[in-house]
Every structure is written in structure tokens, then in C-alpha cells.
Amino acid sequence: MQRVTRAEVAKEAGTSVAVVSYVINNGPRPVAQATRERVLAAIKKTGYRPNGIARALASGTTRTYGLIVPNIANPFISSMAHALQQEAFADGRVLLLGDSGDDRARELELVNNLLHRQVDGLIYTSVDRHPYIELIQASGTPCVMLDRVAPELNVCAIQVNEQHAAYQATRHLIEHGYREIAIICGPLEMLNTQDRISGWKQALEEAGLPLHPEWIFSTDYTRHGGYQAAQRMLGGGLPRALFATNEQQAFGCLRALAEQGLSAPADLALVCFNGTLESSFNVPSLTTVRQPVTKMAKKAIEMLKRWDGEPHNCEFAFELEIGESCGCHPSPHARMSK
User: For the chain, which has fewer Cβ within 10 Å, the N-terminal or C-terminal residue?
Assistant: First the structure.
């Protein structure tokens, strides 16, 4: 079927094409109510739909934002994507999702693709915190990073202090009296892995506890990665406590423990980073660092709307949500109300 044109709508309504445009765009000139109703009735009868591409060319805006994330399968990332979609929709925008699958080559392809689509703004988390900023800045497209990046890049960013969050999570284990504390972390070349290891080390050093290099278990930020790292840990002697640097790794670790007849916190006290609602409903519930996803999403969209080209940074407070996995005994109501 051929696309219905505004000229056909105008003919059906008995008016000019310009008047049809005024009704569709709600201006710039006023239209009498009776004429407006005729045009709306003609649109309904003919099945006319505005041409989005033509409208974008005329208005200079596509009413779309782009979102690039490392892996949408990660529940924390999907919860952030959902919150961003809600905020974008409330702003009258469509959010286009690009999942790089933890692949930098694919990430570059997604950046180029979204820029070619002339999105009005880009929200971006790089696979390894080495984003393609020069490419984005050359296009003139507003961009907000959802992570800490090197200051010299001069980009807008929102984040929590991951080193301090890792420090607080490890310190919580120390306050329980645990002295042998291992870490399951992400790939060592990733900047967020380095931040989380630094926080873990800082807490141990302040408490005068030894740092055991053999208790640093690097793996993917996945359930399977956590499972494999925990198996390696079990093969070398079990520490008394563990900081897992994301929720999925913690779930994998719990599976490996269960296969050996072990559990948390009885045999291994456990805290993790980037918890979601899954942490509250797990058995045992996980003690985890929670980021204020909704507030962060709202701020990211606001920064795109008020874009002025300056490198604004916004740091958010995190919450250490107490569960059972560390040895605490929170009330069930407090856990489930999160």
C-alpha cells in the first residue's frame, strides 16, 4: 500500500496542506476548532501517519536517545536500562538500545550506528571504561557516561564511588570479625575491577589484615564466572569471607558452595556489589551495595535535556543493603520492602 500524503488528507478535509500541518504539529498558526475536527476525522479515515524522518529533518530532532551498555543480560544493567527507558518516555523520547555483548569492536559499531541515526543524545557505558569519546564529540552529539572515566576526556558522567563502595562492603565483613577475606573480581584490565580491588585492599590495610594475592580471583561478571572462580577458591582452601564484585558472581559462588555441601554465611560470609531486587529474594538474602538507579536515570536524561557542552559530573550516594549472607539478621519485612 502507498503511504497516504498530507495532500490527500487536505483533499478529504476540504482544506489546505498547510492547515493539515498546523493541526499535526499543533502550530505554528492556530486552527479553528471545526476545521481541526475535520482534519482529525480525515486523518482517521485515510489512515495517515506522519513521516518521522521528514519531521526530524524539518525540526532538527529525532526525539530519540541512544543507550549503549556492555551486556543487557546483567540484571543491574537491565534495571538501569528500564529506568532510563521510563525517564526517556516521560520526556517524549524513544530509547534505542545497543548491547555490545562485552565486545569493544561491536561497541564501536553501535556507536557509529546510533550516531548515523542522529539520536538527540547518547547514554553510554563502555565495556572497559575506554569509550569512543572522540568519535562522539566530533559528531556534536550530547553524551552522558554511566560510569567513571578518565577526567581528561572532559565528558558528562554520573556514577557512584566504586572504590569507596568496595571499601565499605569489605569493612562490613571486617566489623563482623572476619580476618580472611577473599575477592572475586572482574577482568583485571577493566577500570571498574581495579577500583573495586583498591577498595578491598584499602579496607584490609586499614584493619592491619594481610593481603593474599592468591585470594584475588579474576573472572567474568557472570554467574558462570562466579561459579568457576569459587571452584578455584575451594580448591585452594576456603577463606572465612568473600567480597564478590557483582551480584551475578555472588549467585555463581553460592551454587559452587552448595555443590560442596557448604553455605553462606555458615561456611563463607558473603557481600557483593551492584545488587538488584534479586538479592533480596535470594536465600540467603545478599548483603550488597545498591546504586540509586532511578535517581541516576532521571539525572542522565536531565543532563541530556539541558546539554550545554560542558563536562558535568554527578556522584551519587550508594547504600549497603544488609542481607543474611554476611551473618546479619535483618527483618524479612525490611528486606522485601526494598
Answer: N
